[in-house]
Each structure stands twice: as structure tokens, then as C-alpha cells.
Amino acid sequence: ASVIGREFQVALLESIMDWRDPLGESLQQLKSAELIYEQALLPEPVCVFKHALTQEVAYSSLLIQRRKELHRLVAASIEELYANRLPDFYGALAYHYQLGEEWQRALDYLVRAAESAQRVGGYREQAGLLSNAIAIAERIGQKHRLPKLRASRGVAYARTGRWSEARPELERALAETPKDQIEARAEILLELAALC
Asked: Which residues, in sequence order, are CB contacts of 37 under 8 Å at separation 6+?
């Protein structure tokens, strides 16, 4: 449960369990000890660690390799359990794949989460997600994705009034965008012009 997060869906926890004891009894013991409490029953049961420190201690007691495995397992379970509403989970999927060191999947979900944040005006969140995406793209050698990611982050910076970061980011995106990608270069130039 601590790998899923401070708040966790009971169905998700059940899907990643590798033991045979009934989950209900274990959760009841944790509730009786006042370590977790039930936050919601609908649309599905959700539990929360009463204190963030409790979740952090439980999480840090796991071996690093085991944590990575569990993060990958959580992400795969989210994809399976919530396949009909994956956009609601793009951020969580990016988080778990990133900590599970499945870099390609983490990158793909970071980009999707950033696009979702941008659609609802969450430009600060978008910039943060794109920063992680850029770091991963650099790490796994996907340099062809960098210009678009940088341009998007530059626009997000501009939308949040971070002008001193927006301009160099857009200039770098322009410099990295191949000359034959005329439309992409024009869009970046328009964004740069809007900063003046």
C-alpha cells in the first residue's frame, strides 16, 4: 500500500498482492491500530494512511529493487484495472513508471499528463511534468523529442509569467528544431514574438 501512495484504492492493492491472506482482515487490523482510515466507499473503496510519516516509514523499509518492482506492478495494474479511464491516471502512471525505471513508458505518460494539465490551464504542473520528460528523453537518448518538449515547456513558462525561463527555453527549442520542420519552427517563433 505504501508504494501506491498515501491514498490507495483497495482494488488496486488487491491486484498487486502476492500473498493469500484475506485483504479485508489486514486492512481492518490497520484501521484498528489507527494507521489507516477509509476515506471513500464510492465509486470504490479508498484508504488513506492517517499520517504521511507512517506511509513514508513503510515505504522506506522496502529494499530499493523491490520498490522498483512494485512501482512497475502498480503501474501495470492501473493500466489493467482502469483501462476505460486511463486519462485520469496519466500522472500516477508516469510517477510509478518513473520510479520503476521503465523510462520509455514514464516518458510517454509524462507527455500525456502534461498535455492533460495544459488542457485545463495547469501550466505550472505542465512545466514540471515536461521537466521530468526532458530529463528522461535525454537519459534514454530520444533527442528527436527534445525540441517539442522544450517548446511546450517554454510556452508553459510563459503562461505562468516565468518570462526569464520561457525565452531561453523557446530559443533552445528553435535551435534544436530541424530546418525542414517549417510549421514547428513557425509556432516557436510566434511564441517568442509574443514574449516581446
From this structure: 31, 47, 48, 50
Q: Which of 73, 81, 178, 165 is nearest to 128 (CA)?
A: 165
Of 86, 110, 88, 87, nearest in space to 97 by CA: 110
Asked if residue 186 lies in contact with residue 174, where contact means CB atoms within 8 angstroms, the answer is no
- Find residue 37's DSSP bridge partners: 48
Q: Which amino acid would we find at residue 194?
A: A
pTM of the predicted structure, to 2 decimals: 0.89
How far is 41 from 46, CA to CA, in rounded Å? 6
Rounded Cα–Cα distance for residues 100 and 141 (Å): 18
| First-to-last C-alpha distance (Å) of the chain | 49
Q: What is the pLDDT of residues 93-120, one digit of tens each?
A: 999 999 999 999 999 999 999 999 999 9
Q: What is the DSSP letter of 86?
A: G
Nearest to 81 by CA among 2, 5, 16: 16
Residue 131 exposure: Cα atoms within 13 Å on the Cβ side: 10
Length of the chain: 196
Q: Which three cell numbers stand for residue 166?
A: 520561457
Cα 190 to Cα 168: distance, rounded to the nearest angstrom: 14
Residue 48, Cβ neighbours under 10 Å: how many?
17
pLDDT digits (tens, 9 = 90+) for 167-195: 999 999 999 999 999 999 999 999 999 98
Q: In this structure, are residues 134 and 153 in contact, taking their beta carbons and an 8 Å threshold?
A: yes
